[in-house]
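Tutorial, part two.
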Amino acid sequence: MKLKKFLGMMAVLTACVTLAACGQKTEKDSWPEIQKKKEVVIGFDNTFVPMGFKDENGKNIGFDIDLANAVFKKYDVRVKMQPIDWDMKETELKNRSIDLIWNGYSVTQEREKKVLFTNPYMKNEQVLVTKKSSKIEDVAGMKNKALGAQQGSSGYDAFTKQPKILMDIVKDNDATLYDDFNSALLDLKADRIDGLLIDNVYANYYLTKNGEIKDYNILTTGYDSENFAVGARKSDKTLVDNINKAFKELHTAGEFQKISEKWFSEDVYPGK
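Running the prediction step on this input gives:
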């Protein structure tokens, strides 16, 4: 009887251990599967000029797209660019809808808790864009004025974490949030907001390309400069290592510089 009771307890214990083990999902390194499929899926905001965006013909183009294609060409892997809701980027990565976040993705402490970053491939800073006709020529000029920013952007993150720069002085002590910078710029042009907190690379490229740079101020803000890097799942160390290796090789070979010159007229690689 005692033996039966003991065997019964052991069976229950074994079942509990098995269930616990099944409940723990071990994240796999995706690199073998990417190599097998010969495809990597990259999530991006297709309005972020000039990093990755849809042109007038509906084609996805941009600096990050050219760079991603150059990186994965080395591994005979095709790049599939997947437009995503930028506010949901980490969720899309976690759910394996995408393999990477690559679209002017700034490294922040908060994001480092969720993703594994590659080495930085570019520096950026947050700037304040205002119309010259508004006479707002510095951050202090935004006192009681309406500010715009992109939902889920590193700029809005900096805005909330360093409140003394803008948050404490702007109207309602908050920013009007937009799904993309294009919508925000349209509101700035229409005077629905007075200033826009935006990535410097976007502001310079967009306003120069549209011949509007003379009508706007691009003002320094005092927020910390940022590094752009590629975000992967924490388990994808091989994938990240291979991207880092390709970055270095592309710059040594001069291929990185050609892509950079095409979009920015300079070499933006931070590790040179």
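The mean pLDDT is 90. In part three we will examine how such features are distributed along the chain.
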